[in-house]
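Input set for joint prediction.
Command: fold jointly, output tokens.
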Amino acid sequence: MDRRTVLKTGLTVAGTLAMPAYLRAQSNKKLSILTWNIADQEALFKEEFEEFKKANPGVEIEWLDKKGPDLPAFYQTQLVAGTAPDVIDIQGALWVEWAANGALLDLTPYFQNDPAFVKLFNPDYMSSFVYEKKNYLVPFYVAKTLLYYNKTMFKEAGLAAPPRTFDELLSFSQTMSNGEKTGFLTLNFDWLYWPLMKMNGIELLTPDNKKPAFNTPAAAALLDRLAKSTAAGAINKIAWTGRWVEPNGAFASGTVGMLQAHSASYFFVKGQGRWINPDTLGATQAPGDWSTPTNHGFGISKSSKNPELAFALVKHMTSVKLATRLAQIRRVLTANTEADKAGLESVKSDDPLAYAVLQTQLEHTDKMTGNWPLANDAQIKEAFWPEFQNAVLGRKEAKTALADAERAVTRVLRRS
Amino acid sequence: MSVTAMDSSVARSRFTERRSTRKAVLIWSFLAPSLVIFLLYRILPLAWNVLLSFEAWSPLKPAVFIGFDNYREMFQDDDVFWQALWNTLGIIASAPLGIAIALGLALLVNSNIRGRDVYRTLIFLSYPLMTVAVAIIWRWMFDERVGLINYVARSLHLTDQPIPFLNSFTWALPCVIAANIWQMLGFYMIIILTGLQTIPGNLYEAAEIDGANSFRRFLRITLPLLRPSLFLCFVIGMLNSVTSFDLIYVMTNGGPGHATEILVTYIYKLAFNQTRFDYAAAITVVFFLLLLAVTWGANRLSGGNVGAVEYD
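tokens >
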């Protein structure tokens, strides 16, 4: 063996050893999968990976799980490094930006080749993963907003049923507010407050998504009303200042009449509020049946060396079998129709309230809003929200806030 | 001069030259690993960051040179940048407050009070705590429903309604500053205490004989001789304040709105939440220049020798 061969061999061995494990997993017949804060399902995942490996001999799977705030930053650094995981679980609208920038694989041809697989899913949830007529994700688990209401506070205020209009929502909130008690709260991240706008006919952008459409007299009037209700204590200020723990925690304390939040909030609220049972907590659609989804879906990185295999893994991870188990164990809906039916059935007797909550997630799926496929969603959100917040907290005149928001959003749209 | 003497002089100078060359090589050999690391992890990223600030770039798009567009946007259109800048300066300005409190505490635990070692330990304990832990502790302390501060305020009938400290545009920044000061207090105190103990006792005795009261002794002896310690505290406190990413990230995440946003949290959000690495790079350049200016100012105020090596 000459010196050059020895050097080459040495460098190859050193390079292989130095390479991160999951980068090695990108080599032939190896898959890497990145999930979003679901490490609690380790046993289920490992079992399913083993099954997938049995069905696909010689395949190796590298699984990584990251917490919500860490995952986007991690995925972006991996994209830059050219080492993106083959399969990725993405939440919210993050996927649109990555799809628009060419990071995700267009799954449309795979769907066309396998119509039976597509038919497994609720078409409304499925269509929420379409950007420029191309499919990018397969639903993993899904959620959308609903209206929780404190039946005890309703009874004390002499209110017989939850509000069916926006006007009722505000007047009921006012009726229930008293001292420490407030009438209404909403989660505000990821456009979760947008149903309030939609039920008043306000749109964020023009239909072609090119220009802002929200700066209207109706929007200014609405923001004024929200500001007045907030100042009067009908709407809890946390609706506009808290994120997840604060609004859910406030509702769990039993001093807030209504909470607009997604189905995941139920488990948080139930864990904190001892008062919660089917007689004291109600779950229904928000007025106008509008809701904002916060879905999780599996996508495939365009850089994957094994896209076919990666799609097979996505199919496995969203199959009726696994989706059913996930729905039953985690008490979530998966948009896989058969799995959700089985999941709901198992929840029905164990936790009737959870059943009622989850049931709302399958109704009016055609009336979802706030899920625009915008490649610059995060930037638009950041341009709009601070001004909206200023208006509803009375820090700025509604008209001025909307004009400022319009300028900021226009800048973002122009930049893109 | 004889030929032999000249030869000997040349040989001596060559020997000295060789020795100094060898010494220089040795010094550079020792310095090289650190310099390489410094170059790779500090200078090159900094240079690339400056370059990036003049480009439009995102991870999956090729870079396009756009001149000063990012800077123009920052200074003309971006209200959040200005708010983050003022908040950052506000936090920097809070460092002297912490140092003043620490000075008072250091004077207290430097006196002959009973149990002073216990007090010293108790005050210092906040410093070794992880910043994330400090942030979580204070988040709970300020909590609207179960927080100790609201509980005390309501028990003393100072307020009827619980105050949402960290969700209030008025209170959030002062609360974050309070937590930051609390964490640094122990560190400041130890530095100042060390400074106090190096002041010769005979200076106080002489001043006392001359009739100086305790306030004048503090003003004329303690403060001037503590100047190096105080400036060290200020420089470290200032650097700690402007980079207190973790404290703010955990306590408020820059909110409500952008009420507690500082430049570092804003840079992070722009890069990783909005995928605007180019614009984040431009703000980083401004942030870097701000840090340079503040450090230079602090160094000048301290006599221009902070961090200098003293030779005996």
